[in-house]
Amino acid sequence: MLLRDVDAGDVDAYRRMRCDPVMMADLGGPMPPESVPGQLRHDIDLVARGAGLIRMIVPDPAEPATVAGTVTLVRHEIDGEPGGEIGWMVLPEHQGRGVAKRAVRLLLDEARDDGRWSRVHAFPGVGNGPSNGICRSLGFVLLGERETPFRGEVFRTRHWAIEL
Ligand SMILES: CC(C)(COP(=O)(O)OP(=O)(O)OC[C@H]1O[C@@H](n2cnc3c(N)ncnc32)[C@H](O)[C@@H]1OP(=O)(O)O)[C@@H](O)C(=O)NCCC(=O)NCCS
């Protein structure tokens, strides 16, 4: 597996992830297709500004055109302190094979090597079994549950954090 920066060619992968009601069930529901190019531009700009890492998951480096999903780490102030929030998405045909867990581990390793990240937070929905499993098995500490506002809605989430 390798991770690469998001780029302008990722519009189809973005559409397949962001417009799918099942994929977006814990993320505020599907986006309208017309908002996808703007989201992609926003993410490319975010990386260019150094405000975060938006990485595309390529499961087999011998097939660089096949993208399985994304892992993201974005700078945020969380509970009044600077930190990073990590998130992940894996397309249905790649799910259930450990792709998300491996990609999250790789991104945490990159962030650790980068040296500019310290505490990384994750806020998976309380009912998101795989995402909470990823946090637990990669050494995140469970800090509690909270209501997390996201895209105009409020979600009941777990709060996990890891020190890099
Ligand atoms: C969440 C998501 C990224 C998981 O991707 P994935 O590649 O299928 O996940 P993995 O195969 O790496 O599995 C992760 C872990 O969850 C476990 N798991 C899988 N399904 C599970 C379930 N229903 N309940 C509990 N654990 C589960 C796996 O066994 C694995 O743990 P292990 O390695 O210790 O055995 C994917 O389902 C997705 O994109 N969903 C939609 C978007 C989303 O919800 N993103 C997260 C928002 S917080």
What would you say this structure looks like, in words?
This protein has 164 residues and is an alpha+beta fold. It has one domain: Aminopeptidase, CATH 3.40.630. Helices cover 28% and strands 34% of the residues. The chain has a seven-stranded mixed β-sheet, sandwiched between helices. Strand 3 and strand 4 form a beta hairpin. It starts with a strand and ends with a strand. The site of coenzyme A has 22 residues, from strand 4, helix 3 and helix 4.
In short:
This is GNAT family N-acetyltransferase. This protein is 28% helix and 34% strand.
**Average pLDDT over all residues:** 96
> How much strand content do the residues show?
25-35%
Domains, number: 1
The gyration radius over C-alpha positions equals: 15 Å
Number of strands: 7
Structural class category: alpha+beta
The number of distinct helices, counting runs of at least 4 residues, comes to 4
Task: Indicate the CATH topology.
Answer: Aminopeptidase
**CATH H level, superfamily name:** Gcn5-related N-acetyltransferase (GNAT)
Low-confidence stretches: none
Distance between the termini: 22 Å
- Could you say what the CATH architecture is? 3-Layer(aba) Sandwich
The coarse overall form would be globular
Tell me which ligands are bound.
coenzyme A
Give the SSE string: EHHEEEHEHEE
Organism: Micromonospora rubida
EC number: 2.3.-.-
Pfam families: Acetyltransf_3
InterPro entries: Acyl_CoA_acyltransferase, GNAT_dom, N-acetyltransferase
